[in-house]
Amino acid sequence: SETVDAAGTPLWSARSAIFARGEGGFGGARGPSEPVEFPTREPDFELTVPTLPQQALLYRMCGDRNPLHSDPDFATGAGFPAPILHGLCTYGIVCKAAVDAAFDGDASLVAGFKAKFAGVVYPGETLRTRIWHDDNRLLIAASVVERDDVPALADVVLTIA
Fold first, then answer.
1. Known catalytic residue: 5?
2. Which residues of the chain, if any, have pLDDT below 70?
3. In Å, how far from its chain's centre is CA 15?
4. Given its phi and psi angles, is residue 108 left (phi above 0), alpha (psi -120 to 50 degrees) or beta?
């Protein structure tokens, strides 16, 4: 999708896809995979960012009515012990943490941000975000502290403008 201002000037474009593990049946080839190769050195930044216990309910106020994020019985029926945080919320928290750490909060330095959802985050958990400068991009690993750094996002790349 492309978002434009009132004069028709492009502001940003967004691309999204849904990957439902194990669902299959689409009849196509698997498609390319671009795993991120992290440097062997220590990250340039390592941050821990808490999520709020009510974080998913804040998204509900913005119009997301998916009961997986708010209804404990529904979440249990879907195989989770509790409602899960929206993937887009995790994505936004990690992107903001990277921009704050690497660019002192200047989002105009971001040309692009991509990630794969690698696991669930439960509201109230803490995200560990490790960031490496690599030429014109930041390479990022995001995991959940409380669950022995289980990955939350994978193959995260922030392209620098």
1. no
2. 16-27, 30-31
3. 14
4. alpha
CA distance 45 to 133: 9
Instruction: Pull the structure tokens for residue 33.
Output: 């995979």
Nearest CA-CA partner of 115 in 93, 134, 100, 135 = 93
- pTM of this structure: 0.80
pLDDT of residue 59: 78
Active-site residue 86, yes or no? Answer: no
Tokens coding 160 = 């620098």
Active-site choice (5, 44, 64, 86): 64
pLDDT number for residue 156: 94
Residue 70: DSSP 8-state: T
Choose, from 5, 44, 69, 73, the residue flagged as catalytic.
69
Query: What's the first-to-final CA gap in the chain, in angstroms?
Result: 21
CA 16, 35, 91, 82: dihedral to nearest 10 degrees? 100
CA distances from 126 to 21, 66, 85, 100, 144 (A): 25, 22, 12, 17, 6
Question: HSE-up of 157 (CA within 13 Å, CB side)?
Answer: 14
CB 121 within 8 Å of CB 143: no
Q: How far apart are CA 101 and CA 54, in angstroms?
A: 25
